[in-house]
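TASK: fixed-backbone design
INPUT:
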C-alpha cells in the first residue's frame, strides 16, 4: 500500500493542496494500520492486542481521511468530471459509488473499536483489522482511478 501511495503522490501531488494533504493523510493512515495490524516493520515477537490509545488514534485518522475524501476531494473531482463531459461524469459517479460502500466498513470498525472495546469484542479484532485492510486497499485503488479520470482529461483546479 505504501508503494502505491508514493506513486499517487508522484502522479497527482502538487496539483492541489487539499489533494496533497489528503495523500499525506492516506500515508499516515497506512502507517498506523501497519502498526495496529502488527505488519512489518511493526511486527512484535509476542502477539498481543494493541493498546486502546493506538486503536483510538487509528480510528480517528480513519474517520478524518474518509471525511476529507467525501466532503472535500470527491466533490471537486465529481464537479470537474461534470465539466469534462457526460462520459467522465458517469465513470466518476460509478467509482464514487464503489468508494462509498467501503465507508460503511470503516464506520463499523470505528463504532466497534474506537472507544474502550470489550474483551469479547476484541476477540474479533484480528479478523476485523484484516478485513478493514482489504477494504482500505480496494478504496485506495478506486480513489486513484477517480483521480486518474480527472487527470487524463483535465487538471484538477
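OUTPUT:
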Amino acid at each position: 500500500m505504501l508503494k502505491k501511495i508514493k506513486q499517487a503522490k508522484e502522479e497527482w501531488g502538487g496539483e492541489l493542496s487539499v489533494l496533497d494533504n489528503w495523500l499525506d493523510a492516506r500515508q499516515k493512515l497506512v502507517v498506523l494500520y501497519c502498526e495496529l495490524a502488527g505488519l512489518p516493520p511493526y511486527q512484535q515477537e509476542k502477539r498481543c492486542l494493541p493498546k486502546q490509545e493506538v486503536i483510538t488514534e487509528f480510528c480517528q485518522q480513519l474517520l478524518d481521511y474518509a471525511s476529507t475524501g467525501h466532503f472535500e476531494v470527491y466533490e471537486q473531482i465529481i464537479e470537474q468530471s461534470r465539466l469534462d463531459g457526460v462520459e467522465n461524469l458517469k465513470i466518476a459517479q460509478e467509482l464514487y459509488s464503489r468508494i462509498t460502500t467501503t465507508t460503511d466498513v470503516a464506520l463499523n470498525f470505528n463504532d466497534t473499536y474506537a472507544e474502550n472495546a470489550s474483551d469479547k469484542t476484541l476477540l474479533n479484532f484480528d479478523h476485523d483489522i484484516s478485513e478493514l485492510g482489504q477494504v482500505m486497499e480496494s478504496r485506495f485503488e478506486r480513489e486513484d482511478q477517480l483521480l486518474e479520470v480527472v487527470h487524463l482529461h483535465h487538471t484538477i483546479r
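COMMENT: The chain has one domain: 2-153.
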